[in-house]
Design brief:
5 helices; mainly alpha
Amino acid sequence: MTGADEVDGDGRTDEPEGPHDAAGVDPVVPEAAGTDAVADEFADDAEVRAFLREIAGDVRGDSSESKQLSAILYRVSDLYDPDEQTSPEEIYLNVRHIMQIKPQGGIER
């Protein structure tokens, strides 16, 4: 391996960010994705919200993976909470960001 393919001591490559990352664009989530349709799809549902949050509490453990899964489930439960303003796209982007940070060793890098 040489040049841009070399791996740093922290496990990351010297490869520059991709064009989507550099532009702050996610190729999976369209720019026009709005929350109007989401409001119709995910109406207030206390039973679903409570179920997801109960499972989130059950799976939360000491490992970082179980904490991540718990946080994701709790975040998804926000779709069914009328006091939360979120969308599946926002949740996806948030989870994607978390998954990109973990291999880097944390957000402080």
